[in-house]
Specification:
Blueprint: E1 2-8, E2 11-17, E3 23-26, E4 31-34, E5 50-54, H1 64-81, H2 83-97, H3 99-105, H4 111-124, E6 129-132, E7 136-141, H5 145-152, H6 163-172, E8 178-185, E9 192-198
Helix pairs in contact: 1-2, 1-5, 2-6
Length: 203
């Protein structure tokens, strides 16, 4: 979706338009045709209108407070409904959100897992060590970006925060040639070692 931000003196207009849109924006002294073209029109006051076009993909991806919101949700489910309900929720989330990736993994292409992991940590701006082979990918991190943000806000991570790794990634691998193992996890920092391995290659 194309986002057009129009600045007019101290007023601004924010309009979300589909790429194929051909709408017009009427002002008291000018008309701007929104047909994916940049235009600046003069007006009687001698003031112009500047059109700046941006896409969501132009902006840096940041969602750190999502970790805090998710932690609150996890605490609510855990405190009111218990461990099994929390794991069920995370499984349902993973099946829905990662359905396209799960479908691609069924082909047995381990490069899909590498892209998935690399993309997550790139968006987080987080350094991890990734070791890969023909049939496995291992990820080592000194801390969890989510837990780090939660504690920086003065809050404590849910006692089952590890399940955002364990349950989510095990669910991601359901009905695929791959298996996920959370080899270790530090409950305070989220430091951990994760392993994705092709099932047929397990010892």
């Amino acid at each position: 979706m194309r986002l057009c931000v129009l600045f007019y003196v101290k007023k601004y207009f924010f309009t979300a338009l589909a790429p194929e849109s051909n709408k017009s924006l009427q002002t008291s002294d000018t008309t701007i045709c929104m047909n994916n073209k940049r235009k600046t029109h003069n007006n009687p006051a001698g003031q112009g209108i500047r059109i700046m076009e941006r896409k969501a993909s132009d902006n840096k991806y940041l969602h750190k407070d999502f970790h805090v919101a998710l932690n609150h949700l996890m605490n609510y489910i855990y405190n009111n409904f218990g461990e099994d309900s929390l794991r069920d929720y995370l499984s349902q989330y993973a099946r829905a959100f990662y359905k396209p990736l799960n479908h691609r993994l069924k082909s047995g292409n381990i490069a899909e897992i590498e892209r998935y992991i690399t993309d997550i940590y790139k968006k987080e701006g987080w350094n991890v060590k990734i070791t890969k082979g023909t049939n496995y990918i291992e990820i080592e991190q000194e801390a969890c970006p989510g837990i780090s943000h939660i504690t920086a806000k003065g809050e404590k991570p849910c006692v089952l925060y590890r399940e955002t790794y364990n349950t989510v990634n095990k669910t991601l691998c359901e009905n695929t040639p791959f298996e996920y193992t959370l080899k270790n996890f530090n409950e305070e920092t989220g430091a951990c070692t994760q392993l994705f391995v092709r099932k047929e290659a397990k010892p």
